[in-house]
Amino acid sequence: MIYMPAALAIIGLIYMWVKRSWVMKQDAGDGKMKEISDHIYEGALAFLKAEYKLLTLFVIGASVALAAIAYFVPTTHYLIIVAFIFGAFFSALAGNMGMKIATQTNVRTTQAARTSLPKALNVSFGGGTVMGLGVAGLAVLGLTGFFILFFNYFMGGEWTNTEQMTIVLETLAGFSLGAESIALFARVGGGIYTKAADVGADLVGKVEAGIPEDDPRNPATIADNVGDNVGDVAGMGADLFGSYVATVLAAMVLGNYIIKDMGGDITSEGFGGIGPILLPMAIAGAGIIISIIGTLLVRIKSNDAKEAEVQKALNIGNWVSIILVAVASYFLVTWMLPANSMTMGFFVGGEEGFEMKTISSLNVFYASLVGIIVGGVISAVTEYYTGLGKKPVMSIVQNSSTGAATNIIAGLSTGMISTFYSILLFAVAIWASYAFAGFYGVALAASAMMATTAMQLAIDAFGPIADNAGGIAEMSEQEPIVRERTDILDSVGNTTAATGKGFAIASAALTSLALFAAYVTFTGIDGINIFKAPVLAMLFVGGMVPVVFSALAMSSVGKAAMQMVREVRRQFKEIPGIMEGTGKPEYDKCVAISTEAALKEMLLPGVITIGFPIVIAFLPRIFGYENMLIAEMLGGYMAGVTVSGVLWAIFQNNAGGAWDNAKKSFEAGVMINGEMTYKGSDAHKAAVTGDTVGDPFKDTSGPSMNILIKLTCLIGLVIAPILGGHTEGDIPNMDETVMVSEGADSKLISKEVKMEKKTEDDFVTAYVVVTRSDNGEEVTETFEFEGAELEVRSKVDEIK
Amino acid sequence: MIYMPAALAIIGLIYMWVKRSWVMKQDAGDGKMKEISDHIYEGALAFLKAEYKLLTLFVIGASVALAAIAYFVPTTHYLIIVAFIFGAFFSALAGNMGMKIATQTNVRTTQAARTSLPKALNVSFGGGTVMGLGVAGLAVLGLTGFFILFFNYFMGGEWTNTEQMTIVLETLAGFSLGAESIALFARVGGGIYTKAADVGADLVGKVEAGIPEDDPRNPATIADNVGDNVGDVAGMGADLFGSYVATVLAAMVLGNYIIKDMGGDITSEGFGGIGPILLPMAIAGAGIIISIIGTLLVRIKSNDAKEAEVQKALNIGNWVSIILVAVASYFLVTWMLPANSMTMGFFVGGEEGFEMKTISSLNVFYASLVGIIVGGVISAVTEYYTGLGKKPVMSIVQNSSTGAATNIIAGLSTGMISTFYSILLFAVAIWASYAFAGFYGVALAASAMMATTAMQLAIDAFGPIADNAGGIAEMSEQEPIVRERTDILDSVGNTTAATGKGFAIASAALTSLALFAAYVTFTGIDGINIFKAPVLAMLFVGGMVPVVFSALAMSSVGKAAMQMVREVRRQFKEIPGIMEGTGKPEYDKCVAISTEAALKEMLLPGVITIGFPIVIAFLPRIFGYENMLIAEMLGGYMAGVTVSGVLWAIFQNNAGGAWDNAKKSFEAGVMINGEMTYKGSDAHKAAVTGDTVGDPFKDTSGPSMNILIKLTCLIGLVIAPILGGHTEGDIPNMDETVMVSEGADSKLISKEVKMEKKTEDDFVTAYVVVTRSDNGEEVTETFEFEGAELEVRSKVDEIK
């Protein structure tokens, strides 16, 4: 059973490879098309190469830090470094594959659009499918692979006790941390890249020189098209890769906690006694196969299809896969979990504070249903607030008639007010999934929601591919029908981009909650009390960080765009014949500016994200604060970041999306004060201003919030064992004091002592793992002692 | 000693009256000036009248709700209704007095400006002083007066026990709730009023008709000038009145808690055993006298003085009063508190959770110093981010050159990034003041900061008076020198307005923290654990409310401004000769629109503010949640509102202030890309767009956050006793079971039984207060019993 999810992931990857070969076999078009496509491909590779250089340095630095943690914390093993490096590598690999397939599918989509719309959809969605399955497959394969490895390494492939499983999972957290670190680079750097190129290209090209979008004479146009891939494909992919891994990991940690609550051993329940830990992986594995089924349903027949039919095809695939996940969850949950004998600790009111409750496996299924439903509803709410023709967008359109200021106020208001239903939904989701099955329920709600990640990503990645295909059609001067067909796909892609962002926030928020819960169990604190002043202070600081992070990301875009503007202006002035199409623009210079700016500007936000939790974990020690209090402070910080980050993510994404579609509304014409108003009107100009403000909101700072909140909680999780009270100095060398009697038929093979010091003076818990050969058979026993230090020592001595 | 603060408040009010007579004796100018001033005065009165009508309804409704609370909760007495009504009345009275003096000082300032600048400053600051002392005097008088009343009524003017003092303070909370409710109407309604009038007047007058600001031909100009008074004078006054009262109250509640921690009786320490409770009132009283001294120092000599000198005069008054408060705090704290014997419960790490520590009175002084310093530094940070010529504003100016979009992005970034230092300061303030003296220290930090309220308000109110004076000079066509002089005062007033907003946020934030701490002591919960899912869910909901509240306030301004625009357009079209100055605009119609819109649009935000805490307190009961858990949930909500509210207040105020000054920078000309750029340039137009977006930010939604967070915490405080586990049904009628032996020289006068049920089953605490005449002397005794219900009943029976 433990190999099942990995096997399913491999099936997903094989299908991905088959699909990839099919896409690559498609006609890649002729001369000019190929040339442009090659430019985009090379630009994307240039970004990846520069990024990898920086990443390598980062991974080395982080590995050293992890080595220090592993050295000082007995429950953290050096293997965390290996897991971290592979997490980073897998995430980068997924991004690399995604970028490559996206930049190669775009031109094939243009070529296919010369034939028919169904063909173009097939090709572009095929590219998206490759991306989706690549990300999901690598995520599940990596996580389950390392779990199997560590499970065998630390526990010999058999259940021993929850403490050893904690070591397995803490080491596994390295994989998740590696993945999320790459996501920081990809999402934040990608967000800055794409908007710097976009704004720069528009400001000089469209506004100053008066040439259309995607015009090959514009030196920044290749950077702009590369940006779509860097931001929307690689950034989104890394984001969801990180969420996927973190969610499943958090659910596994909480699954281990359930086993602890049930007495520490449920081997009698089957599944090697690790059913609750395997379940989230099984759901993830099933999700991959289900996503394949979903992608197969996405197809249209008519060559004259419009947006609605394409959208419908995508919706069918999406909803079928969501429903199948619900069905699969039901069978997996009732199969793998003890039906009515699970006990969980619940926080309740009153003085006792904590209560053990017995819950049925059906409860866990209900919790996962909560996640699936909330994921769907949040996407719907996002669509309402940002959708074309919906009330909020129409109100922004109306407010454009009185100028840019009223347009801006209306857009900001829309983003702000959109937090109402989204946050209430989250609150209900937390409440309900916890009520059903405790924090394990919350984590499984997130896991079930994330199970369709491959499908979601396929839908998401198809948008920028179609967008690029349109750009290539424009630049290579194809027949208008080609552009019309890619425009239909692009338009649908814009809608899926908005709902995809809703899905990404929802997943990030639930993931963070699950990690937050896992954090508390790792540190061993029994709650986070914000009535303690230092904890409250950290709640404030945590609330502030997303706001400052957003501001930094936004002004980064401004700075990078200004550099781009200067470069484009220079080329227009210095390259002879560039405006007549005889001189060749230096695309690579613009690509280089975006690349360098993205990676440089990303550093400060990155330092804040990683630095704050570390400072909070270590600075108070100087003031003599106890570890348990510091753990609560860090928990308060995490909660502050999560609450504020989710709010600002929703606010910025929805405001940006609404502004974008308010501007687009003018393309078909809108009725303002009884008059049809079109592109070029003053109201349209006001709407363009709003859209420009919204661009960094929805594509840079907004989506970055996802990474910020997840990475903050993950760093907390990795630091957690340090705060849990384990430090090297506290472990007396007890090797010599542990005596295991060796007799004729009983021989000592190995003994290992772990001792952790609790916060109270001289109160210790010691674990002694003894392996011996008994009548030729290998037997492993773990002895646990709790009490005053001297007492424990003497007890440990007694082991015979 | 108990009468001292009230006496100081009365001295302050007498001084106010003297100052008021002096101001009223100043020359009120001639025909046209007087006519315009009368219009403004009447407009202000019209708003007050409409507001009072709505207020009366609200006060009646709230009184009924409070009656219900008093009925069901034994520790809440019916007198809370009286306190509430007087709190509302005093706050309204202070606002009324402030508005009247401000609208009468304005024309006198114009008249004085015809003579000299020092005279004009004297008059306008004199008006501000009247306002400041009126608000502070009434606040201290009302609070201390009711405390004396309740102390005598419930405790006979002598220390009995902390439980009875809790009843006194819970009843006193009604006064604070009344005051803060009025602040909701004044601040939010006022904010909508002033911006609706301002935007409406500008859009049609300046932009469409091309007539200057404050032109008497503009029908909305009177409403605009009334708005300055409604928003900046009455709104700010009510805001600080509420903060002042709430802060002192919270400190008193926590002072009572200290006495409890010290064993419940410290009469041996002098001050009737209520030193820690009296101290915050004493500091407030001293602050009034100190503020009078401060105002006396504000004067300039030279008639040719510029902004810098006027600013310096204000700064001297301000800083002297702040330093004097620090000195006074030192003497009061060391005099009134036990020097080294105070014990306080502190939350610490580890399993015990709670620890009693002994602290010295000097620690409390240090805590109050923290408040004073943070208040000053936050004002300085605010000035940096919004000040003319400072880096952030200059950066917005530079970004205006590339259009409105980049101006908006730069302004938003500035507001967002400005949260960094402000929030870190708060975090340090919470941390440090708590480390010095627990939550009593946090409350005293707030009290010490608020002690200079009278001085702060004098500085604040002087700004809009000068602004109005300039308007009157313009409308009555005075010599240019008059306008020049009022412009100097107005310009200084703009700076003080920004720092005043910083002070108001800081005070609101610290007040909320103090109330938050008081809430926890009232409910009897031992912390707020955000690891409990329902509490975490409420933290999310609380974080969302300020965002939605801000959106509602912003869009209210938009709606009301549109109404105003239509009315002004109508008058321009329909009134013959209006543009030639021969037709008379119907000022009152515009005033009526602003008034009605303000009061109508205020309702929904008001309902959200008041409704959410009530729903959270009662809805979960339907699901069978325990009171203690509900109390934690409400606490989580309060924390969410406070953290998010403070963030959004800083963000909106500073962004708005920075946009405003970026626009103003163009008046003197700014250097952009090596070229001097002035009013009328494209960059200036972009800056005007930013300022229009910033207007509702800094004058409506931003300042409303203060009220939202304070009122939320106050409502929590009033609901707290209900959640503390007291409900009518739990109180057995024990009247007949209490037996007090009556003998020859001992006669029963009255006995009162209070019994509260704790959360554990059948575990009760009963208080029996018996008053009897003993040898002709009246003796009051309180008996307290804790234990199982039956046991307590039998004990109570034993009272002989």
Largest interface: A-B, 88 and 89 residues
Distance between the termini of chain A: 37 Å
Mean pLDDT of chain A: 85
Question: H/E series of chain A, N to C?
Answer: HHHHHHHHEEHHHHHHHHHHEEHEEEH
Oligomer: homodimer
> Rg of chain A from C-alpha positions?
27 Å
Largest sheet of chain A: 3 strands, antiparallel
- Per DSSP E runs of 2 or more residues, the count of β-strands of chain A stands at 7
> Which spans of chain A of ≥5 residues are poorly predicted at pLDDT below 50?
725-742, 757-762
User: Pairing-aware structural class of the strands and helices of chain A?
Assistant: mainly alpha
What is the domain total for the residues of chain A? Answer: 2
Strand line-up of the largest beta sheet of chain A: 5-6-7
Coarse morphology of chain A: globular
Spell out the blueprint of helices and strands:
2 copies of one chain form a homodimer.
Chain A: H1 4-25, H2 31-72, H3 79-115, H4 117-155, H5 162-209, H6 221-261, H7 275-296, H8 307-336, E1 342-347, E2 354-359, H9 361-386, H10 391-400, H11 404-417, H12 419-450, H13 453-475, H14 480-523, H15 533-574, H16 587-601, H17 603-622, H18 627-668, E3 670-672, E4 675-677, H19 682-723, E5 746-757, E6 763-774, E7 777-788, H20 789-797
Antiparallel strand pairs in A: 1-2, 3-4, 5-6, 6-7
